[in-house]
Amino acid sequence: MTIIIERRYSEAIHPIHALLLAGTIPLFLGAALSDFAYASTYEIQWSNFASWLIVGGLIFTGVALVFAIVDLCRAHRRARGIGLYVVLLLVTLVLGFFNALTHARDAWAVMPTGLTLSVIVTVLACVATWFGFGTPRIGGAK
Asked: Above pLDDT 90, what percent of the chain?
């Protein structure tokens, strides 16, 4: 006799977690594009835009990291690859923080380090988002 347990809930990523995770990409990408615009035009306002976009990306990444750590700690949500996802989010947050510190300097002192860090953080955010949405969850209907 085989007992089949059917679960009526989804083990996919939580909708708020998904929203915050997906929101990191346009914020960090906007910062990288603003840095590129500043490097091309030397209009200081582009550097200010990049600073605000980085702060928004850091907030989204930080809250998404909290969601990921909670998923990591809950045994029924843990799956292969979630540890790498948490590490990617943590590295994105740390490099994003250093990017924010770089952008806190005078606008002329931001380049080229600010642009380089913005591009690296954008790529990390994309990879972390890919892992976040691609990490299989254990449980649910099979």
From this structure: 70
With a cut of 50, say whether residue 32 has pLDDT above it: yes
For residue 78, being part of any structural domain is answered with yes
Q: Alpha-carbon distance 115 to 96, whole Å?
A: 12
Q: Is residue 101 part of a domain?
A: yes
The residue with tokens 């954008």 is 122
Q: For residue 29, is pLDDT > 50?
A: yes
Q: What's the token pair of residue 65?
A: 């990291």
Q: Residue 18 pLDDT > 80, yes or no? A: yes
Asked whether the beta carbons of 92 and 121 are under 8 A apart, the reply is yes
Does the bond joining 112 to the residue before it have cis omega, within 30 degrees of 0? yes
φ, ψ of residue 18 in degrees (nearest 5): -65, -40
